[in-house]
Amino acid sequence: MKAVRLVEARYPLQMQEIPVPSIGERDVLIRVRAAGICHSDVHYRTGQSPVQPLPRTLGHEIAGVVEQVGSHVTTVEVGSRVCVHYVLSCGECSYCNAGHEQFCTRGSMVGRFVDGGYAEYVAVPEHNTVHLPDEIPFEQGAILMCSSATAFHALRKSRLRGGETVAIFGIGGLGASAIQLAYAFGALDVYAIDINADKCKIAEQYGAIPVNASVSDPVTEIRRRTQGKGVDVALEVIGLPQTMKQAIQSLAVMGRAVVAGISHRPLEVDTYQELIGREGEVIGASDHLLHELPLLLELARRGKLKISDTVTRTIPLDAGAINQVLDNLEQFRSDVRTVIVP
């Protein structure tokens, strides 16, 4: 089969012919119908987040049709429409038993430590498949498995309550989903912060109050619009120390800032003025959980979460096209989300 693979860090991905994956008795083989290109894949290509071992087929946002099932598989059958939960876990360690499988002591990840969806087929454990309703296209199902699911988990971590206000820093794939999910969780007002005017318009279409950070200071603007109070929840999904700091500075008394964006640079915080003085909190959000996905998909099926506009482009399974998208993402030039349709 054809697969687009990371052969060496800091070099373009390459198209290769590799064997169709074999499956074990509790695994399924999926014909990939859609694979999202995520900003995390940029980190893998640059070596910022190491991929081991190489070569490796990237792609952790996957939706498709079950092509083959192992002898002990009972929950899906050939022809089933499924999405893939990319966190591979043992189901037995203390973290898995506590419902925190993203910290599994024997855990792995599809598209980073095992071959992923930039290919015609992918093999995963039965446990990692989630039914994709007929009403949701494959392209949307794929990106629900990362950007939307990560936003969902981050908002759950924020303990957002009905009637509270929210600020979302970054209106890419995660941010666009986070706006809608925040309203579904009961948010009263959602402020959407970005430096891209087009993304601010997208946020406004989802009902958010846009704040163009290239025109005005977002912290000052949020406090002006909230009569000096600030927001109850701030969600940072970009991965820049500057926007993480702005998220913290925008908090009201007892506010919670959730950081989901990935950065390896340190964050400076005025602990007295920004945390102790307000009893504010800074919360990390890592990945998402399998048990969260059925509700997320149901929200999408019912139209509470609309991501049709989030999929801004589809491309074929082609190394040149994929590398171009990754180049754009690396320079923050890309549209909200590009999906590979093999």
UniProtKB/TrEMBL annotation:
CDD domains: hydroxyacyl_CoA_DH (cd08254). The chain crosses the membrane at residues 166-186. InterPro entries: ADH-like_C, ADH-like_N, ADH_Zn_CS, ER, GroES-like_sf, NAD(P)-bd_dom_sf, Zn_alcohol_dh. The keyword DNA-binding does not apply. SMART domains: PKS_ER (SM00829). Residues 5-341 form the Enoyl reductase (ER) domain. Keywords: Membrane, Metal-binding, Oxidoreductase, Transmembrane, Transmembrane helix, Zinc. Its cofactor is Zn(2+). It holds the Pfam family ADH_N. It comes from the Bacteria. One of its GO terms (molecular function) is oxidoreductase activity. Belongs to the zinc-containing alcohol dehydrogenase family. PANTHER family: L-THREONINE 3-DEHYDROGENASE. This is NAD(P)-dependent alcohol dehydrogenase. It comes from Dictyobacter aurantiacus. The lineage of its organism: Bacteria, Bacillati, Chloroflexota, Ktedonobacteria, Ktedonobacterales.
